[in-house]
Amino acid sequence: MQCRQGAAIAVVTAIVATLCPACEGDHRPSEPTASTGEAITNGTTTTGDLGVAALMDGAALRCTATLIAPRVLLTAAHCLPDGELPTAFFGAAPQGDAGASIAVVATRVHPAFDPSTLANDVAMALLAQDAPSGATPWPLPSAPLGSSSVGLSLRLVGFGQTAAGDSSPPQKRVGTATLASLAATQLVLTPAPSQPCEGDSGGPAFATIGGVEVVVGVTSSGDAQCSQGGHDTRVDAFTSFISPWVRATAEGAAGPGDRCWYAANCAASAGECAEALDDPTLSFCSPPCGQGGSCPAGLACLAGTDAGSALCRHAPPSPGAAGSACSATSDCEGANCVAPASGGSTVCATTCFPDLMGFCSSGTVCQAVAGDGGASACFASAAKSAQGGSGGCSAAGPRASTDAGDEPAAPLVTFGAFALLAARALARLRARRACAGARCRTGRGAP
Questions:
Q1: Residue 403 and residue 393: Cα distance in Å, rounded?
Q2: Could you tell me the pTM of the whole model?
Q3: Is the confidence at residue 3, as pLDDT, over 60?
Q4: Most exposed of 92, 112, 401, 419 (fewest Cβ within 10 Å)?
Q5: Got the DSSP string for 21-64?
């Protein structure tokens, strides 16, 4: 037991050094960060803007978000750490209003989001059902903002706290700011007289352009005192990221073999939204098998893991699953698109640590990643590749035996699970501390 305890401490130490450099003394933020602050400073309470929702963790406010499609909310990437799913509240006061709460079932965080700098701080959340009646989605800008946009009046909405030390429950407020300047991916705001503060992260900056109110900014960060201005993510700079996911998650948008997130997402002729054979976090539109087991191109007539009726499905590895071919990390679900340093094509592969056991599953081994000094990922072992494996980490259960070149997993399954949990916890800690250093606007009690 003493030896295992020492190993656990070594795991935590190694993970802190690898995943949480911001936790070290040399990386502390140079400016103090307020833990709470005024919500939409100098704003007023409102029962309107029904499409602006509060992202909640139980009774605690996490962030604000804006409805941009019947099931899709636009928010900040730092509001969705490690894929954690909040609940969206539609109403004026989450802890006292007879509004509607809807679960978030999936998220899409910009693949290039950097929690230490808040670069590319934009994300989306998919609701379990359509937003309540009366909550109308806001349109995105139809064209890029130009220099003539500087000086625009911006309407801000958010649920943040009202003052430092204030313990009153979240309340929706509205105020105005001025667009002071444009950067490539950010808007710089000055109070007029309002600005966002803690709890308003992810919320909207609206502008009226051509007679239409559109969401031009997503609240990201600001000064610690919430008095000198703020920074929003430019929505027009990320429409190529936002619009495709909005289209893909729309009702009836998915065809046979396409990714789906809910039953009605599949077109009438595309079959049912069935769980992938190798990754329970992925689902695809799977039509019934035709005569003689025929299926659309790219699919095969396969039974489900529960031995149910056969459907036209993706043979493992499913698109986006560990081991599947990819061209960008956005192609992968919970993994990175990388190639092994030893040579080979890019595949979706999960991060691992060469000196720590238990991160890679059966048939895979922890190897260095090409072109990324010090990084490693789970790739197909030589034995699996020789048997026709496609690379990456398989989704198989605990191993009964150890292949040559694989990590010995059986005696370390529990320890490996601990290491994974520790890595996830410390990744969240890093995001929180990095967020503090960048003065982002998550609410009290948020991750």
A1: 14
A2: 0.77
A3: no
A4: 401
A5: GGGSGGG--SS---SS--SSTT-EE-S--TTEEEEEETTEEEEE
